């Protein structure tokens, strides 16, 4: 039945070659126009698992207490002393400039110049206070000395002022939309504005501007991702050279490259049609689509050259190559497509869009490289290779065919089992989440990470903040037992390894109460009477972020030493334990908000998705191979090497301190999806020979003669292409390049070495 469909399709396509090619040209022009409208998209919500329980808490209270999408701008005086007129003038300008950038939540902008930045002191009559920077402030020595005194009274050293008085901080929360247009906030344009209007305008020899936050990081990642264009051009050049060396023909070099570029145009155009943009992660996919397209094109070229060498005309050879490769090539590409689509099971927008982008790209290769390419080749005059051209390579194929004999197969399988056992031990040590300090997507020495390290070293606050949301009932903060319980929770968490400091309404109320009692440390406790408690809490405004309007929600802020996976896991486990002990009908401690809360949710989503994703990927490949080969033995022979290589890739991640994160989770699926192509092409030829009763070694030798050169070429081309990512400005792209290079090469070796060894065991007695 399948053969009839393929033959009918071949007959139609090659009778209507000109019409079909013209249709491809029209579709390419249309999708090329659509691709020209494609935009970069790095929305914050795409990077978080929105349906995770932590994120439900985060979204519920984001408006009141801010979220993880914040900006911190540290203005540094290079002299080491901020108390001069030039610094305060610059700080005021930075504050105002940030305040008026569209997308900034103006109510959440905080600096020395914010009216809500106030000091309080104990005087004879009780309390006195006011704005840290008075309304009549001028940058005279007297005015600067007044501000210095107010800063010390306000207790903001380490938060808004560097501990050595060398810098001051301006912070802001971002909205999800642009208030001027009502459209979703363009994160990358916002990041460009920060760079241009803050750093570009105010940084000089005396002033340095340090900017961190998700939007700025996304902007820096997008800037680094522009290097992908250069890598893409290098990949085209390298691939062109290798295809020419393989084909020995200019036309047979240009056609595969052209068809693969058409596949990229179609993919980008289809993304626009379905309403998606490119983010810094999925911008890598067009390169993979191009590389996969070329790999399947090489199989087509190889098949045409063989048919021409057997005496066929170019048109007949192209038709026969189309007929012989449509099913195995189609199954391989469908396996890739379905494998990538399994990533949709991961509840993170950026991974789901990557899955759709990759699936669209690989799916169109079936049309551009398995249909368009042979039609184009049929119009050329392909020359047969000289009769002695393959003599040397045939000797190599003969030696490799020994892997399909029982003697050599036993050695290969024992070595594979030993390698798998060692790899499995290391793979089990693989960590979930980020294992390095700073922004993991960027290199250690990037400007963003250097800014992060500067702020961490000079301010007592850190960017690694987790917020525990305490939900109670209206006026709950006026009850002693409620604040006591919050205080106990805070104390327990503060003494957890990895927590640098904490803040809550309970701890601040204690300090206020001491202030009402002449600052005596003995009175740094929670008042037991409601009247005294109301007096203490009443001094803490809602703008502090420690309580909401009716005092029914009171966050506890945890400032962590870093955001490494083990630190987050330790703190989360402690919070869960305490929550289970302390939650009741009146009081609930909920995880989690803040940047580290988002990271914790993401880590848990990745951990939960890891096993299902692998099961889905291998399940999809298993079913498609079973349909293609109609043999359980053949299916297992293809999948076992893939599984071994996946395990070794995870072991490599452990050795290189690469954690399983949003950027690395899809790599395994991509590696398996693309790696299965090698085995399918080799075994599709072997299966025919085995069904005819040919011994395993001879069947494998014939498969190598027909497909071996193309398979090895494909593995090398893909590996060389992604190996250029080692030099990327993006750390996550470099990590992906290392892992994909490893998987492309080792999957190819698995198909050449392990697959025939398994075949020697499975097909001892050919029919």
UniProtKB/TrEMBL annotation:
The keyword Acyltransferase does not apply. Coiled coil: none annotated. It is found in: Cell membrane. GO terms for cellular component: plasma membrane. Residues 220-379 form the SSD domain. Keywords: Cell membrane, Membrane, Transmembrane, Transmembrane helix. Its main location: membrane. It holds the Pfam family MMPL. It is a multi-pass membrane protein. Signal peptide: none annotated. The chain crosses the membrane at residues 12-33, 227-247, 254-277, 283-304, 354-379, 400-422, 609-627, 634-652, 658-683, 704-726, 738-763. This is RND transporter. It comes from Shewanella colwelliana (Alteromonas colwelliana).
């Amino acid at each position: 039945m399948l053969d009839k469909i393929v033959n009918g399709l071949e007959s139609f396509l090659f009778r209507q070659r000109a019409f079909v090619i013209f249709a491809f040209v029209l579709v390419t022009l249309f999708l090329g126009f659509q691709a020209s409208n494609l935009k970069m998209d790095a929305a914050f919500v795409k990077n978080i698992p929105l349906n995770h329980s932590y994120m439900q808490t985060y979204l519920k209270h984001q408006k009141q207490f801010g979220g993880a999408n914040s900006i911190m701008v540290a203005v540094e005086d290079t002299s080491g002393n901020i108390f001069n007129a030039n610094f305060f003038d610059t700080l005021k300008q930075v504050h105002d400039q940030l305040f008026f950038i569209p997308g900034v939540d103006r109510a959440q902008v905080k600096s020395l110049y914010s009216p809500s930045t106030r000091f309080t002191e104990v005087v004879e009559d009780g309390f006195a206070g006011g704005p840290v920077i008075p309304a009549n402030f001028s940058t005279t020595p007297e005015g600067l000395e007044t501000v210095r005194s107010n800063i010390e009274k306000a207790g903001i050293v380490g938060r808004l002022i560097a501990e050595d008085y060398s810098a001051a901080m301006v912070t802001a929360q971002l909205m999800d939309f642009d208030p001027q247009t009502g459209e979703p906030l363009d994160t990358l344009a916002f990041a460009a504005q920060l760079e241009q209007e803050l750093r570009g305008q105010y940084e000089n020899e005396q002033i340095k501007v340090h900017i961190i936050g998700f939007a700025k990081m996304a902007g820096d990642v997008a800037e680094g991702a522009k290097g992908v264009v250069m890598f893409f051009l290098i990949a085209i050049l390298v691939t062109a050279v290798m295809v020419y060396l393989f084909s020995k023909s200019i036309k047979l070099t240009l056609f595969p490259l052209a068809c693969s570029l058409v596949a990229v145009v179609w993919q980008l155009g289809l993304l626009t049609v379905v309403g998606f943009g490119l983010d810094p992660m999925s911008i890598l996919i067009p390169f993979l689509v191009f590389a996969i397209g070329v790999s399947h094109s090489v199989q087509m070229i190889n098949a045409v050259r063989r048919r021409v060498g057997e005496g066929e005309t170019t048109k007949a050879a192209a038709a026969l190559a189309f007929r012989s490769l449509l099913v195995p090539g189609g199954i391989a590409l469908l396996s890739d497509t379905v494998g990538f689509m399994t990533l949709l099971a991961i509840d993170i927008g950026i991974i789901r869009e990557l899955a759709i982008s990759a699936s669209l790209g690989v799916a169109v290769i079936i049309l551009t490289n398995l249909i368009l390419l042979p039609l184009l080749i049929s119009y050329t005059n392909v020359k047969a290779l000289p009769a002695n051209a393959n003599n040397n390579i045939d000797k190599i194929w003969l030696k490799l065919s020994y892997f399909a004999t029982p003697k050599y197969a036993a050695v290969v399988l024992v070595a594979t089992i030993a390698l798998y056992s060692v790899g499995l031990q290391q793979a089990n040590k693989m960590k979930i989440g980020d294992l390095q300090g700073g922004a993991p997507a960027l290199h250690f020495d990037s400007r963003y990470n250097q800014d992060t390290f500067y702020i961490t070293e000079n301010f007592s606050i850190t960017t690694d903040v987790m917020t525990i949301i305490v939900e109670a009932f209206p006026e709950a903060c006026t009850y002693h037992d409620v604040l006591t319980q919050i205080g106990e929770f805070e104390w327990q968490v503060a003494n957890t390894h990895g927590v640098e400091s904490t803040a809550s309404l309970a701890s601040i109320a204690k300090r206020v109460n001491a202030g009402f009692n002449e600052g005596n440390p003995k009175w740094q406790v929670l008042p037991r009477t409601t009247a005294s408690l109301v007096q203490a809490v009443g001094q803490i405004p809602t703008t502090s972020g420690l309580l909401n309007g009716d005092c029914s929600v009171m966050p506890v802020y945890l400032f962590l030493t870093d955001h490494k996976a083990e630190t987050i896991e330790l703190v989360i486990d402690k919070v869960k334990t305490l929550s289970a002990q302390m939650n009741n009908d009146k009081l609930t401690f909920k995880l989690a908000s803040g940047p580290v809360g988002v990271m914790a949710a993401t880590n848990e989503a990745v951990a939960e998705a890891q096993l299902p994703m692998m099961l889905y990927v291998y399940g999809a490949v298993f079913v498609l191979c079973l349909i293609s080969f109609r043999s359980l033995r053949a299916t297992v022979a293809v999948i076992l090497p893939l599984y071994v290589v996946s395990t070794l890739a995870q072991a490599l991640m452990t050795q290189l301190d690469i954690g399983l994160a949003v950027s690395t989770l899809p790599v395994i699926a991509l590696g398996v999806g693309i790696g299965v192509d090698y085995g399918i092409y080799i075994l599709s030829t072997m299966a025919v020979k085995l069904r005819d009763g040919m011994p395993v070694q001879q069947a494998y030798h014939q498969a190598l003669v027909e497909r071996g050169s193309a398979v090895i070429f494909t593995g090398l081309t893909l590996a060389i292409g992604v190996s250029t990512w080692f030099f990327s400005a993006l750390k996550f792209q470099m990590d992906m390049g290392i892992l994909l290079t490893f998987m492309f090469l080792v999957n190819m070796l698995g198909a050449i070495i392990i697959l025939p060894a398994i075949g020697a065991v499975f097909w001892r007695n050919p029919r």
